[in-house]
Amino acid sequence: MRVIAGSAKKTHLLVPRGIVRPTSDRVREAVFSMLGDRVPGAKVLDLFAGTGALGIEALSRGAASALFVESNRPAAGIIRSNLERTRLSGLASIACEDVAAWLKRRTAGNLFDLIFADPPYLRDAGQQGFAAALLLSPHLPQLLTPGGLLVLESSQCASPAVPAPWRLQHARTYGETLVQLIGLLEPAVKNTDPPCS
Q: For 115-131, what is each residue's pLDDT tens digit?
């Protein structure tokens, strides 16, 4: 696995065996092609970060900062090593914590322009997986800037419905992987005109 573009282009990333399912180079390249000019200057949150490949790719392409949330301690160590290999550690921080617990204790003060989430896949379409639970979290929408995007990866055979306050903007499949670009519904515009007399 390597960084595809930007300041750390072609740097090989460490991958812990058997701990995570990293996003393939092909899928990462497609994701960043879809995101285009949203990346430079963006504040990035990488949930279920694994190797940190998504957040690191964003930093390499000019994102302003990245926060990685990963519950597995060895995987969090790999993220730290990958940040050092790419010389991007000065722009990043790592929280070694369960994503659901981390979201519950966050406040809306620190907002992100791009949120990447690549939770573990569920093979059984009848089960509620991590992706569905994430979309139902009341805390996650509070962390996204107006006009920001959630980039959600899931298994296409067990893909979650996108509930309010989220709005699906784009979706593509790559083999077993479904990538959804999801924004927030626009708030209703209040009529401030005085009533007719």
A: 999 988 654 444 457 88
